[in-house]
Fold this sequence. Notes:
It is built from seven helices and eight strands. By secondary structure, it is α/β, with parallel strands linked by helices. The protein has a single domain (7-179), classed as DHBP synthase, CATH 3.90.870.10. Strands 7-1-2-6-3-5-4-8 form an eight-stranded mixed sheet, with helices on both faces. 40% of the residues are buried. The model has no long low-confidence stretch (mean pLDDT 95).
Amino acid sequence: xxxxxxxxxxxxxxxxxxxxxxxxxxxxxxxxxxxxxxxxxxxxxxxxxxxxxxxxxxxxxxxxxxxxxxxxxxxxxxxxxxxxxxxxxxxxxxxxxxxxxxxxxxxxxxxxxxxxxxxxxxxxxxxxxxxxxxxxxxxxxxxxxxxxxxxxxxxxxxxxxxxxxxxxxxxxxxxxxxxxxxxxxxx
Length: 187
């Protein structure tokens, strides 16, 4: 398998996300499932597919901080410097959520988990979609995440609207989640 999807494949995955679909795509450590975070139907469908409770919240992944700005509150400069040092990269942070950020993303908390990824496929997909996207591991809740697109296809078949090929990044485990205010590791 080619480790980089074609422009056509990226475009098709981005169209799928913009039209309310669910896409499987490679991330830093495992394959992820993504959709448009502003589309409640797509997010609820994704949560049902994963058998995941809404209270757990979700991660948004983006190609730039600008794509996350609609979802997070302004970050004080001192804390923004911490983000600047590690993004883009395999670092997920809990940031204060924007007042209008929906509970289906935050799990009802006042923070939102976000990452500006350096993974080339994630970067291309977010740029082609023109937005941050939901990023949750490709698995049923409580089960091990998949590291193979072939295994995802076997498990989910037509429940996922598009399968975007590509190589995983070099991480052995999904990214850590840290609280930006305290630095505390959440996962």
